Amino acid sequence: MSTPQLVVHRDKELMAQAAAARLITRIVDAQASTGAANVVLTGGRNGNGVLAALAAAPARDAIDWGRLDLWWGDERFLPEGDPERNVTQAREALLDSVPLDPKRVHTMPASDGPWGADAEAAAEAYAEELAHAAGPAGHGAVPAFDVLMLGVGPDTHVASLFPEHPGPRETERTVIGVHGSPKPPPTRISLTLPAIRAAREVWLLAAGEDKASAVAIALSGAGEIQAPAAGARGRARTLWLLDTAAAAQLPRSLYPPASA
Ligand SMILES: O=C1O[C@H](COP(=O)(O)O)[C@@H](O)[C@H](O)[C@H]1O
């Protein structure tokens, strides 16, 4: 697993634009070398900010949208179309404005879908979809994710893996149902740390002063049960994309002044 690298931008708008530019390059490179790209999206303010910046970037047309597979790191287990679902917000920020292949948009199930309110069955179905797409280049039971993005919650949660909950303790399954989430809604579906760690690159997005203590805790040696963000690492690269407000409580030894 890779050692975290930090890039600190002036503010959240610049962080989102720089992450979007970086994402375009990674997708275009992956499509050039393998013919396709697999990207895992995150919900939350910072993740949606990156998608909106990507929608506004003229270079977005360099992406072959029909050869892009999109997956989700987590989902709020709500009815299809609910404004709080991560996919609804992603559609609004970007997905509805680009020519994606609908068969390659791998949304997590909704609570009014084929599994009804059974989040465990819905999680198992998503795990099967991942395993089906894994192929020989995949790692374990998930596809070869080129980039997996994660927002970092103010409590250090990533995806829907919350501190001291069963989620970050999961070592076998790739997808789990989450119950009693401290952040609404209480029921969710989430990739686990083993699935996250199968990604080539993991990008953790954190902007704003409400993220400062979470960033400092996760990067100062905390364990993944107490601080799930600390356990999110990519095989080749782990990149923390921050703004100055989110980086404000980092020890000076970790803060890279040149990148601000
Ligand atoms: O509920 C969620 O929250 C986190 C963090 O969101 P933020 O708005 O504090 O940035 C997000 O990463 C996750 O996907 C989402 O379900």
UniProtKB/TrEMBL annotation:
Transmembrane segments: none annotated. Residues 161-187 are annotated as: Disordered. It catalyses: 6-phospho-D-glucono-1,5-lactone + H2O = 6-phospho-D-gluconate + H(+). InterPro entries: 6-phosphogluconolactonase_DevB, 6PGL, Glc/Gal-6P_isomerase, NagB/RpiA_transferase-like. Pfam families: Glucosamine_iso. The keyword Protein biosynthesis does not apply. SUPFAM superfamilies: NagB/RpiA/CoA transferase-like. Its EC number is 3.1.1.31. GO terms for molecular function: 6-phosphogluconolactonase activity. The keyword Hydrolase applies. GO terms for biological process: carbohydrate metabolic process; pentose-phosphate shunt. Keywords: Hydrolase. It is an enzyme of class 3 (hydrolase). Pathway: Carbohydrate degradation; pentose phosphate pathway; D-ribulose 5-phosphate from D-glucose 6-phosphate (oxidative stage): step 2/3. Gene3D superfamilies: 3.40.50.1360. Residues 11-240 form the Glucosamine/galactosamine-6-phosphate isomerase domain. Hydrolysis of 6-phosphogluconolactone to 6-phosphogluconate. Belongs to the glucosamine/galactosamine-6-phosphate isomerase family. 6-phosphogluconolactonase subfamily. PANTHER family: 6-PHOSPHOGLUCONOLACTONASE (PTHR11054:SF0). This is 6-phosphogluconolactonase. It comes from Streptomyces naganishii JCM 4654. The lineage of its organism: Bacteria, Bacillati, Actinomycetota, Actinomycetes, Kitasatosporales.
